Each structure stands twice: as structure tokens, then as C-alpha cells.
Amino acid sequence: MAKVIFNHQACKGCGLCVSVCPKHIIALSHEELNEKGYAPAECTDEAACIVCGFCATICPDMAIEIIEE
Amino acid sequence: MAKECRRPKALTDTPFHYCPGCTHGIVHRLVAEAIDHLGIREKTVGIAPVGCAVFAYNYFNTDMLEAAHGRAPAVATGMKRVRPDNIVFTYQGDGDLSSIGCAEITHAANRGENITVIFINNAVYGMTGGQMAPTTLLGQVTTTSPYGRDPKDSGYPLHMAELLATTRGAAYIERVSAHDVPHIRKAGQAIEKAFRYQMEGKGFSMIEVLSTCPTNWGMTPVQAMQWVKDEMVAQYPLGVYKDLGEKEA
Ligand SMILES: Cc1ncc(C[n+]2csc(CCOP(=O)(O)OP(=O)(O)O)c2C)c(N)n1
Ligand code: SF4
Ligand code: SF4
Ligand code: SF4
User: Fold this and answer.
1) What CATH superfamily classification does B24-243 receive?
2) DSSP letter at B52?
3) How many domains does chain A fold into?
4) How far is the CA of A52 from the centre of ligand 2 (A)?
5) B223 close to A (CB below 8 A)
6) 3-class secondary-structure state, position B241
7) What is the value of ipTM here, to two decimals?
8) Domain boundaries, chain B
9) pLDDT at B36 (0 to 100)
10) A54–B16: do the CB atoms touch at under 8 Å?
11) Hey, what's the torsion of the CAs at B121, B123, A17, A35, to 10 degrees?
12) Domain containing A29: what range?
């Protein structure tokens, strides 16, 4: 099974992934800022993810990886 | 379902210094993926520009050189002629390529140098604070066109893809955009083709990528992508402007 992994420390909170997710399951987490001080993106419902890869394609900082498990 | 998607080998582990949401990062990844896919990392030499991408030599895991502002095509010419077995690319912004370096890029194309040029058109000088570039849209407000670009003072947006396609030396010229997922994928294919043409000895290729500068445009990254779609694509039509195809250069 392929899986989407969000690397919080690499994220700059730009919101591009949030804007392209067809399932609307990505949000910026303002509760815990990362080391750079950005609100990192996270998946709010992993079970709903269809692993379309849109988020990884648009992320400018490669904070999102898709891996085979 | 998407394929595996991990950091390409042709990028180092160094995090990009680019502003949040800047498309420079996306295009770096596309270039690196093309290099990985073609298996040319060990023989590729990149030429970094002056502009926000000045640190490209820290990011691409290939041999890299740094050129003076706009002179990357001249440096690439020397590199490729001395080491024709290497794959040589330049990565240049619109201030770098279409303003101060307009002579170098035009003559490199006209001479049909067998190099690959990645041209980032974000309609401003990003690094120095968002000044008007030759590519700035009519009416666009920048720090040096506070009332909007007026063609009576500063001429019209310069269309580099169309211009270079008129040179007999050019083999492949395409304008693509990085504003959404389908266009990013298409841009990746064009970039890979441009590298492949160099491997096949076809001659000069340039991929112009419509890009964002959310910081200097005063927009969020999402708004900036929408602005490319609504405003830039209208004034800079996407498509192939020249392609020698399978014909000999
Ligand atoms: C010879 C010279 N002239 C001017 C500059 C100042 N300068 C640095 S970056 C830049 C413009 C870069 O803009 P662009 O090529 O569009 O790249 P971006 O920063 O938007 O990616 C200028 C004019 C310089 N470094 N060297
Ligand atoms: S892979 Fe697709 S569905 Fe899953 S989080 Fe990313 S954009 Fe959303
Ligand atoms: S696109 Fe990348 S950097 Fe931007 S918010 Fe999403 S994960 Fe973070
Ligand atoms: S100033 Fe503009 S072009 Fe430069 S890194 Fe920031 S957003 Fe990108």
C-alpha cells in the first residue's frame, strides 16, 4: 500500500497542498509550529486519502513523500 | 494512484531558502526528476544564475558553476564545447535571462548551442525586491512601476519563447506553467524532453516556466497560483513554439 507522509520540519506552511487536495483532508496545524516557525500541513483523515499525489506534486519543499509500504 | 514520490537523487539534502509557496522549489524538483529519470546525474553540469536561484549550486546534486548575472548561456557554451559529453543546463530568472542577459541567450540560441535552458518567468526581479522586469505584465504594479506598467514608458512584455523560436539555431522551445498539478506534470515532461534533445545532439532548447513570486506580488501562494492562471497565461500563451522533432538539427 502506498502512503502519504508529511514531514513537518520541512514544511513552510504555504497552503498549496491544502488547496489541491480533492478530499479536503489537509490542514495547517496552528497548534504546534515547526522549528522554522511555520504552521505545518498535516493530514486530518488518513483513511480518506486516495494517494492521488496532488499534494506531493505541488509542494515546493518536498515536505510530502509518497512511499510504498 | 500516484507512484512513489521521494526526494530526487539529483537534489542535495539542503533545504531550499525560497519563500513559502515559491515555484522555484517545484521547478528544481522537476529538473532533478528529469536528470534522475534520464540517468545523467554523474555527467550533468548546471549553471546557476544571479537572482533568487543564485544558491542553485547548493541544491542540485550535480556539478555546478555560478555565472555572472545573465551570462549563464555564455558559460554553458564554453562548458559544453570543451566537454561535449557532459550534459549542460542553465537555470535562469527573467531579470537574468531577458534583461541583463538578453544578448547571451539570444546568441546562444542562434548559434544552436547544444544546451538546455530552464527559464523562470515570474514577471519581476524577485531577489532585489520586486522591481519591474522586461516580462512584467501591462498594468502590473511593481516597486518600480507603482502606477502599473505603462508601455509608453517601459515598452511591452518581452516574449522570450516566441523571440528565440525565430532563431534558426533553436531546436526546441516550449512555454509551460507551474500553477497547478496538471500543468506541473506537463512542465516536467517538457523539461525532460529538453534534456533528452541535448543527449541526442539536437541543439539548443529552452523551457520557459510561468512561475510565482508571492512575496513581491503581495499575494498568498494560493492567490499567486491563481494569478498565473488568470493573468499570466492570458498574456503568455502556453505551448510549443519550435520543435525540430525527430529531424536532424
Ligand atoms: C551585474 C549585476 N547587476 C545587477 C545585479 C543585482 N541583481 C541581483 S538579482 C537581480 C534580478 C534577479 O531577478 P530574476 O532574474 O527575475 O530572478 P528572481 O530573483 O526573480 O528569481 C538583480 C538585478 C547583480 N547582482 N549583478
Ligand atoms: S494524496 Fe491526494 S487525497 Fe491524499 S492527502 Fe494528498 S492530495 Fe489529499
Ligand atoms: S505544500 Fe508543502 S510546504 Fe506548502 S503547506 Fe503543504 S506540505 Fe507545507
Ligand atoms: S522573492 Fe519571490 S522569487 Fe524569490 S524566493 Fe521569494 S517568492 Fe521566490
Assistant:
1) Thiamin diphosphate (ThDP)-binding fold, Pyr/PP domains (3.40.50.970)
2) G
3) 1
4) 5
5) no
6) strand
7) 0.97
8) 24-243
9) 98
10) no
11) 100
12) 2-68
Read off the pTM. 0.97
Name every protein residue with a CB atom under 6 angstroms from any ligand 3 atom.
A 11-17, 41, 58-59, 61, 63-64
Q: What is the pLDDT of residues B24-75, one digit of tens each?
A: 999 999 999 999 999 999 999 999 999 999 999 999 999 999 999 999 999 9
A20:B181 CB<8 A: yes
Write down how long chain B is: 249
Is B225 within 8 Å of chain A by CB?
yes
User: Which member of A10, A19, A38 has the closest CB to residue B222?
Assistant: A19
- Give the Å distance between the CA of A6 and the centre of ligand 3: 9
Q: Is B26 on the interface with A (CB under 8 A)?
A: yes
Q: How far apart are CA A23 and CA A45, in angstroms?
A: 9
CATH of the domain at A35: 3.30.70.20
CB B72 within 8 A of CB B92: yes
Close Cβ partners of B10 (under 8 Å, ≥ 6 residues apart):
B31, B32, B33, B35, B36, B41, B44, B60, B61, B62
| List of chain B residues whose C-beta atoms are within 8 Å of the C-beta of residue A60 | 16, 18, 20-26, 29
* Cell numbers placing B241: 513554439
What span, in angstroms and rounded, lies between the C-alpha atoms of B47 and B81? Answer: 14
Instruction: Please enumerate in sequence order all residues whose Cβ is within 8 A of that of B35, keeping only pairs 6 or more positions apart, or say none.
Output: B8, B10, B41, B44, B62, B87, B195
